[in-house]
Amino acid sequence: MSGPGGFNLGDLGNLNFMEILKKAREFKETLEKTREELRKRTVQASAGGGMVVVTADGDGMIRSVRIDPAAIVPSEKELLEDLIQAAVNEARTRAKKLLEEEMAKLTAGLPIPPGFFGGL
Fold it and tell me: How far is CA 89 from CA 15, 55, 59, 69, in A?
């Protein structure tokens, strides 16, 4: 079973303890590299027809919030708050999906429970 970067879990049942530790270390390094790459990737979500646009990285951190000046109307403060909340939630959902897709590639075939890698 191979993952990104040529990482191969092989048949762990036939490995000795030192080989298993080596495979675990390789897996950890590959996992860390994948998480670092995810931090460099971004997803965007918008609300209100693009009045609010939120960008998050693949680790779920919000990197920017852009608000169209036309959306800043003091009498519609609650509407703007709702738009921001909707865009942030959608950006985080997209970041979580990106994380899950990349982790699924990395752990293909392994019995790893959902959320094991600290979802968003």
Answer: 44, 11, 14, 21
